[in-house]
Design goal:
five-stranded antiparallel sheet; 3 helices
Amino acid sequence: MSGAAEVVTQDHGDLARSDPNLAGAAVTSSYYEIRIAGVLPSEALLDYEPLTASVEPVETVVHGQLPDQAALQCLLARLEAFGIQLLEVRRFRAAELS
């Protein structure tokens, strides 16, 4: 997965405001990479079976496909509920995954 990736947001409070290109747009089944500080509790990804997490020095990377923007927002809300510090969210286009 090398190459340029589109950074969707670093503050997930208001995705549409942070990226005007996403305002009103439906995101369908996109591949995401979510970087968080520290180690992710295993229960944080319950109900998100297509996602995997790998621990790298001082951060965890969660990656996988989500069906839509609503699923992404629910996952980000869950991470926030666990008190997890979000570092970065990237959405990859199909061409970037090749």
